[in-house]
Amino acid sequence: MDNKSYPVTGAGFGYRRCMSETLKDVDPSAFDFLEIAPENWIGLGGRFGKSFRRYTEQFPFMAHGLSLSIGGPTPLDMEFLKNLKSFIAEHNIRGYSEHLSYCSDDGHLYDLMPIPFTEDAVKYVAERIRTVQDVLEQRIAMENVSFYAAPGAEMTELEFLLAVLEEADCDLLLDVNNIYVNSINHGYNAEEFLSAMPAERIMYVHIAGHYNEAEDLIVDTHGADVIDPVWNLLQKAYDQFGALPTLLERDFNIPPIPELLTEVEQIRFYQNQWKMSHAQTVA
After folding, report:
1. CB environment 155-186: b (16+ within 10 A), e (fewer)
2. Please, what is the end-to-end C-alpha distance for the chain in angstroms?
3. Residue 19 phi, psi (nearest 5)
4. Is the pLDDT of residue 106 over 60?
5. What pLDDT shows up at residue 222?
6. Which residue has the higher pLDDT, 114 or 119?
7. Nearest to 139 by CA among 196, 52, 203
8. Phi (first) and psi of residue 253, to 5 degrees
9. Residue 1 per-residue DSSP state
10. For residue 15, how far is the Cα from the chain centroid?
11. Cross-strand pairs, 205
12. What's the topology of domain 11-282?
């Protein structure tokens, strides 16, 4: 942590249109950065566009994409990438990330589909990531995603993720909740998976809630509070990598911002806990 620079610091949460009027009433010291899906804001005018511009001038923002479809069979959407590049520059967006999955063929599927864990897929996806980085003229981060089936797998999720990051020479958006979800659904050790993550590639962290469908099936919904085992895994991440910048995701059942900020404050608590412990160790 001490020797690596990050595009943002501290703790943040996802900004949504429903917050356009209420965010201005929040103490700006209660969080450190915000995140948006650029597809929902590119070219947006009117009152939402104006309030968004006001907030991007006030706070650091990250962009987390929904539609790049990095593993998809159709060509990359160059028009979207061109618009995205302008959007990032216009609003001083600090970093861009996407899901290591795909969401389109001839049209958008409105879901994140798993990329087959194969050597061919590693090469295919890595080439597309390099193309995106060349077009945007910046490094991007790929998120380790939750998945519920692994058709045609020739390697493990961990092997596939590490191979793509290395082959593409890109960064990682480390989603702690997705590690936990997949560890339950696919029966692996979450802490061992976490410990294998390449520290030098981590851009920032996501944490979120989920839905327990059954004892051995968790659905990654981003629609509930973060549970204790996920908080514990986040603390393990801090123990290993330092107090990484961390964002709380909440995509539906969104409570009022003051309630969201209780979990943002929880992130800050664990970050400060690590900093105090690290300072004592150094001393």
Report:
1. bebbebbbbbbebbebbbbbbbbbbbbbbbbe
2. 17
3. -100, 0
4. no
5. 58
6. 119
7. 203
8. 50, 40
9. -
10. 13
11. 174, 246
12. TIM Barrel (3.20.20)
Residue range 169-219, pLDDT digits in tens: 999 999 999 999 999 888 999 999 999 999 999 999 999 875 566 565 566
As to burial, measured by CB atoms within 10 angstroms (0-12 exposed, 13-18 middle, 19+ buried), residue 85 is: middle
Here the tokens at position 101 are 């999955």
Between 131 and 279, whose confidence is greater? Answer: 131
DSSP codes joined into one string, 127-173? HHHHHHHHHHTS--EEEPPP-S--TT-SS-HHHHHHHHHHHHT-EEE
Which pLDDT value is given to residue 216? 59
Q: Which residues, at least 6 apart from 77, have a Cβ–Cβ distance to it below 8 Å?
A: 67, 68
- Cα angle: 6, vertex 10, 11; to 5 degrees: 120
Cβ 102 vs Cβ 210: under 8 Å: no
Mapping DSSP onto H, E and C, the string for 184-240 reads HHHCCCHHHHHHCCCHHHEEEEEEECCEEEECCEEECCCCCCCCHHHHHHHHHHHHH
Looking only at the bridges linking them, the beta strands covering 217-219 and 211-214 are antiparallel
Nearby residues of 179 by Cβ (< 8 Å), 6 or more positions away: 144, 190, 193, 194, 233
pLDDT band at residue 3, thresholds of 50, 70 and 90? Answer: low
Question: Where on the phi/psi map is residue 120: left (φ > 0), alpha (ψ -120 to 50), or beta?
Answer: alpha
How far apart are alpha carbons 170 and 156 in whole angstroms? Answer: 20
CA pair distance 76, 205, nearest whole angstrom: 26
pLDDT at residue 211, rounded to an integer: 52
Residue 35 DSSP SS3: strand
Question: What's the Cα-to-Cα distance from 79 to each of 71, 86, 170, 174, 201, rounded to whole Å?
Answer: 18, 11, 22, 28, 28
Amino acid letter, residue 184: I
